[in-house]
Write a structure and sequence with these properties.
This protein is α+β, with helices and mostly antiparallel strands and 120 residues long. Helix content is 30%, strand content 19%.
């Protein structure tokens, strides 16, 4: 697996605010999120992509086999598909999306370094 983005392509990269996978805008548009599509429904929805992904993220981790990677476990990525992930994703997921995730049994943990438990 290789991931290389030219400077021109880098400005079109986005990270999912739920799982932190990094893909181009067009990949989210065409295929959605490989980990969160059933909950977020990003495929073909510019509004959902704008609300649930961010162009502001830090660090990149390439994970080949999430089931055996200690980095994947540490970043809570061990149940996701192989790919390139951001270590931190800036942005706030809309409340209705958080509700949709919870309704589908997914516990949302912000990927921006906060615990997301201040209001709990």
């Amino acid at each position: 697996m290789s991931f290389y983005a030219t400077p021109h392509q880098q400005r079109h990269l986005r990270a999912c605010m739920v799982c932190s996978i990094v893909q181009s805008y067009s990949k989210f548009q065409k295929d959605g999120c490989p980990n969160c599509e059933t909950s977020l429904e990003l495929r073909g929805s510019a509004d959902a992509i704008a609300e649930c992904t961010s162009q502001v993220f830090e660090g990149l981790i390439a994970i080949r086999d999430p089931t055996v990677s200690w980095v994947a476990r540490w970043q809570r990525l061990d149940n996701y598909v192989p790919g390139t992930y951001a270590t931190k994703v800036s942005g706030t997921l809309p409340d209705d999306m958080i509700g949709r995730l919870e309704d589908s049994g997914v516990r949302y943990v912000p990927r921006d370094g906060s615990t997301g438990e201040e209001d709990a």
